[in-house]
Task: inverse folding
């Protein structure tokens, strides 16, 4: 284990959309990612409009930081689903409180990125934005646990 630490600062914030995080029904949610770090100009997003999706790294800023579970537990505390460890979940209870999400890029308006299906709420700090390249998608067959398919049935 190393003691390596580094500081990250938001480059953008989520504007609009949902005000509270929820477990489901993110489909159709539209919001703006406003790049508000003064180091960036409109040149920073040049060419981004050619992509249909962006990958967004953000912080779960509303999460209860005392609610961290390193061991195994059932997703959403549903006893019908198996207990899995922290790295078998994609929830907000992360060691560094980081989320990664793919969103549909609707349009670029200056430093405002209009997106859909970003599962982050109003005010969420954004640390990085990358265009989604199909070549970075999974290679080979994709497998996942049956409980995750059931859990995410109504997510989007």
Result:
């Amino acid at each position: 284990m190393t003691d390596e630490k580094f500081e990250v600062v938001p480059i953008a914030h989520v504007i609009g959309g949902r005000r509270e995080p929820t477990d489901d029904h993110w489909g159709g949610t539209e919001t703006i990612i406003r790049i508000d770090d003064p180091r960036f100009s409109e040149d920073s997003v040049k060419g981004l409009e050619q992509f249909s999706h962006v990958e967004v790294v953000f912080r779960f800023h509303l999460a209860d930081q005392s609610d961290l579970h390193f061991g195994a537990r059932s997703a959403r505390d549903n006893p019908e689903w198996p207990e899995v460890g922290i790295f078998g979940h994609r929830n907000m209870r992360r060691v560094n409180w980081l989320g990664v999400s793919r969103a549909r890029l609707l349009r670029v308006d200056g430093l405002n990125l209009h997106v859909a299906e970003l599962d982050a709420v109003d005010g969420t700090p954004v640390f990085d934005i990358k265009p989604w390249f199909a070549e970075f998608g999974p290679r080979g067959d994709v497998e996942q646990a049956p409980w995750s398919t059931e859990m995410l049935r109504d997510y989007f």
Q: What stands out?
A: Strands lie at 12-15, 30-35, 53-59, 73-74, 83-84, 98-109, 112-116, 125-131. The chain has one helix and eight strands. Helices lie at 146-151.
